[in-house]
Amino acid sequence: MKRQTRCITARHATQACLVLLCLAEIGAAHAWSLTITSGSRRLFLHVGNGAVSGTSGTLNGTAGTSGVVNLVQVTVPVAQMGNGTDLDMTSNSTQSVSLYGDGNNTCPTPSSQVMVGAGYRRNSGAANATLSVSSPANLTSGTDTIPFTEISWTVSAPGSGAPNVIPAGTFNGGTLTLATVPGNTYFENCHSFVYANSAVRAAGTYNGTVTYTLSSP
Questions:
Q1: Residue extents of the structural domains in the chain
Q2: DSSP letter string over 4-51?
Q3: Residue 116 in contact with residue 212, Cβ under 8 Å?
C-alpha cells in the first residue's frame, strides 16, 4: 500500500479574545477538481503549507515531505466560556497559492483557512485513492480534556463552482473517510475550523493532533 500522511494540530486556550463565527453565515461549499496527466503511480497530499507538486497537472515534483505541521487554535474569552456560541479558529498556515502547480489563489486568507489537497496519478493499479482523517478522542491539558467532537470544519474554494469533493464535517475521535480520489485527479479546497464552545472547561492549553492520510492499494 502506498501511503502519505500529513498532520495538523488543534489547540484550545482560555485566556484572551477571538472573533465569533456564526454557522448561519457560512456560504455554499465548493472545491477544485482538476485533471492530472497520467503516469507512474504517485500520491500527493498536503494540509496547510507544503511543497509545490511540480509542473502544473503532473505531480512530478520531488518526492518526500515538507516536514511542516501547521497549528490551528482558538482562545476563548472568559465571559463567553461554554455559552454554546461557535468560535472561529485561526491558522498559522501561509499557503494561499495552489500546490497543484497552476498558481491559482485557492485560499486567499490562510490565517483563517487551511488548504487541503489530494492527488492520485496512475497508469495502472487501483482505480482510486482514499483520503481520510484520524483524530484522538480528546484534546488534553494535563488531566483535563475536551472531546475532539467539539471541533468541526467548513469548506470553500473561491471562484470554483465545482461540487464539494472534500466535505465539511466534524472530528469524531476516530477515523473519517473524507473522499475517494479517482485516478489522474487532484482535489483541493480550504478548510476553516470551528470550536463549538458547548461547555465550561478548566483553564489551560489543550492540544491534539489530527492526521490526514491518502492511500491506494
A1: 2-216
A2: EEEEEEEEEE-SS---B--GGG------EEEE----S-EEEEEESS--
A3: yes
Segments of the chain assigned E as strands: 2-13, 32-35, 42-47, 70-75, 87-88, 90-91, 114-121, 128-134, 138-141, 144-147, 151-156, 169-170, 175-182, 185-195, 206-216
Cα of 71 vs its chain's centroid, Å: 11
pLDDT confidence of 135, banded at 50, 70, 90?
very high
How crowded is the C-beta side of 20, counted as CA atoms within 13 Å? 12
pLDDT of residue 64: 82
Q: For residues 169 and 175, what is the distance between their CA atoms, to the nearest angstrom?
A: 12
What is the C-alpha separation between 173 and 148, in angstroms, rounded?
Answer: 6
CA distance 68 to 59: 19
